[in-house]
Amino acid sequence: MGILDVLNAGRTGLLAQQRALATTGNNIANVNTPGYSRQRTILEAVPSGGGYGVGVAGVEQIVDEFLESRVLGQSSSAAAATARYELLEAVQRLFPVGSVSVGGALQEFFAAANELATHPEDLAVRTELLERARDLAGRLRDAAAGLAGIQREANQRLATATGDANRILQRVAALNRTIAGAEAAGGTASELRDQRRQALGELSQLLGVRTVEKANGMVDVFSASGLSLVSGGDAGRLEARLGTAAGLDGAALHDVGVVVPDGSLISLGGDPGGEIGARLTVRDADVPGVAADLDLLAVTLRDAVNAVQTSASGRDLDGAVGAALFAGTGAADLTVVLTDPRGIAAAQSLASGDNANALALVGLQSATHPALAGATLGDWFGTLQARVGTAVRGAEDTAAMEEGLLAFASAQRDAVSGVNLEEEFTELIRFQRGFQAAAQLISIGDGLLEELIGMVR
Amino acid sequence: MIARVTQATVSRQLLGSVRQIERRLLEAQDALSSGKRLRAASDDPAGAALVNGLRAQSRDLTALTRTINFGTAVLGAQDDALEQAESLLVRAREIAAQQAGTLATTASRQQAAAELEEIERGLIALGNTQVDGRYVFGGLASGSTPFTAFDDPGFDPLSPYTGGSDPFVIRTSDASTMRLTTPGNQVFGASIAALDELRQTLAAGNAPTASIDTVATVAEGIRAERASVGGRARQLADRASDITAGISRITDRLGDVEGADYASVVTELTLLQTALQATLASGQTLQTSILDYLRL
């Protein structure tokens, strides 16, 4: 080994440490960059025979694909659970615990019926009963309109979400092309891979995806049901298209799916996961379920009250058989059609002080109905309220659990790929010292050369 | 167990903890300010259904309280009317006894007939007693007076009653009803006929010997009806106190189910505040880094 080899070893050392310092610096700079995976400079000794010194074999990105896909899947579940919880919470607000609700209006209606049974001839009492009936019908309509509104909102947001998803699919496809190009030329595309991972993370919040990396560095993306969303450098297109199914408000709802070349739409399937999946589930199962229960209450109330009111033995204040009090086909359009308080059939005889039919009307309060699974009207509403409460509670617990799992999965991912400043600064010092040592080597080599030249003089 | 902890992990965890504590703090503060443990059905779904049922019961009992108060007023008015009727009949019997005696003259009997006319008017007026617009002796009819006025050309002492023949029934609980009134003809029919017969006997100047017992008998009927009214009033009073007890039981139960337990909420609030302070303090120690120890 000659003196020039010493100089050469020092030179390669300087370059290699500089490169390592740059990588460490890059890690430090990206400590807060979302999705960034730390990098490490791989140093290796110049093989014997090739001279002396150190070379940079490359810069590797520390990534565990298994952990990455776990974070991806978990962020889908967490986003779905949170979206579902938020929507169900809005449903719950339509059925508050307390007197300002359908339940409270039902209680007031029967209290007014009780008052009618006490003062059947009193016009003020009759008017009050009609008022309470109108209030009850109004509250049922409000709740039904609220449900229809929540369903419509979930539906509209599906359209927004598919638009967002399409932009991400385009970005992933574009990144696929760039990454494949860069890596085919022998380079590394760590930052681009980070960007793609970040994009896939955003996508998985919108809907559940599966990814498969190919040999050329491109990633194929599939929906949970296996539909191709990104194939190499080409992005598929999602669309929320007006379908045939109608919402609670009667207007058409969106079908969400992938557009195939002939222009038709292939549905994403039952629960495609992510926010889109949660909104579809709430829109198509949860909200219609509550609306059906509410309709059942409205229709049973209408039939029971009308049956008493129009019974052949019932008589209004003018001695006539009563006319129907409620009309409508469900909670959404339930109205009070009886306008004249004299028309309430409180009696079962021509006597104006007769309250026999009014007693039958109050009796409905504790009557059980086969249509309501043997429950009374009030209990049915209580059960409906409890069912919504249970769903919200469940969604809240699931959301908290999924968030916890996501935090854990992210922590595990960070344990491998995240930047730790203490570690990076230690590396910084290590490479700084390496750099100083290499510089010292050159200085010593220089001294040796000078000695040698001095001897010749 | 996380093998390698990064700044991002620590700050994410810290942020998560702070958010969770703040959310629970908000809930505790809400519970404290509203006094309610159950503010939405999801706080306790089964409790919400129970609250709904209890509120319905409580509302029904409050409605029944109004009905029972009205019933008590009607029974009170009946009792007053029957008491007065009883004293009118006692007076009528005195008159009959006096005028049947040997000291009575045609003139005194005709004078007594005038007093009896007033007594008869009084009894008919009692039969037309009203409470809140309802004729308490009118059966189910409530539009017009159940007894024809004495001065009405159509007045027939043998059938002065034009009211309904069915009693008025009120609701006293979820499953039971009670007869509140007795149709007026059953109460006063015999008394009016007896008084009228006595009056006519006296007006004719005859000795009303037979009427002494008749009037005593009808007075007995009024006393019996009064006893029956008293019995029903006692039933209603019992029912009213049952309802009051029921409402207070339900209120207690509602308090248990939906009310906040102040002691535990305040304790939780204190614990959460401490937890928040501790978490934030641990956040401060996180600011310590290798940079503090390096001279770069």
Describe the structure.
The complex is a heterodimer of chains A (457) and B (296). Chain A has helices at 3-29, 65-93, 102-118, 123-184, 190-206, 274-309, 356-363, 377-417, 421-456; strands at 39-45, 54-61, 209-213, 219-223, 228-231, 234-235, 238-246, 252-259, 265-267, 326-327, 335-336. Chain A is of the alpha+beta class and 457 residues long. Chain A folds into two domains: 3-62 and 420-456; 70-407, no CATH class. Chain A has a four-stranded antiparallel beta sheet. In chain A, strands 7-8-9 form a three-stranded antiparallel beta sheet, with helices on one face. The longest helix of chain A is centred in the middle third of the chain and has 62 residues, at 123-184. Chain A is rod-shaped. The two termini of chain A are 24 Å apart. Chain B is mainly α and 296 residues long. Chain B folds into two domains: 48-253, Up-down Bundle (f41 fragment of flagellin, N-terminal domain); 263-296. Helix content of chain B is 68%, strand content 3%. Chain B has helices at residues 7-34, 45-100, 106-127, 184-203, 209-258, 262-286, and strands at 130-131, 134-135, 169-171, 177-179. A two-stranded antiparallel ribbon of chain B has the order 1-2. A two-stranded antiparallel sheet of chain B has the order 3-4. In chain B, helix 2 (45-100) packs antiparallel against helix 5 and helix 3 runs antiparallel to helix 4. The radius of gyration of chain B is 38 Å and the shape is rod-shaped. The two termini of chain B are 33 Å apart. Chains A and B meet through helix 2, helix 3, helix 7, helix 8 and helix 9 of A and helix 1, helix 2, strand 2 and strand 3 of B.
Report mean pLDDT of chain B, rounded to a whole number.
90
**CATH homologous superfamily assignment of the largest domain in chain B:** f41 fragment of flagellin, N-terminal domain
Question: DSSP strand (E) fraction of chain A?
Answer: 5-15%
What is the helical fraction of chain B, as a range of percent? Answer: 55-70%
Instruction: Quickly count the helices of chain B.
Output: 6
Strand sequence of the main sheet of chain B, in spatial order? Answer: 1-2
Secondary-structure element order of chain B, N to C: HHHEEEEHHH
Radius of gyration of chain A: 37 Å
> What class, by secondary structure content of chain A?
alpha+beta
Please name the CATH topology of the largest domain in chain B. f41 fragment of flagellin, N-terminal domain
Bin the helical content of chain A: 55-70%
Q: What is the top-level CATH class of the largest domain in chain B?
A: Mainly Alpha
What separation lies between the terminal Cα atoms of chain B? 33 Å
Please give the largest β-sheet of chain B.
Answer: 2 strands, antiparallel
Cα-based radius of gyration of chain B, to the nearest Å = 38 Å
Global morphology of chain B: rod-shaped
- The average pLDDT of chain A is 93
Q: Most extensive chain contact?
A: A-B, 66 and 62 residues
Beta fraction of the residues of chain B? under 5%
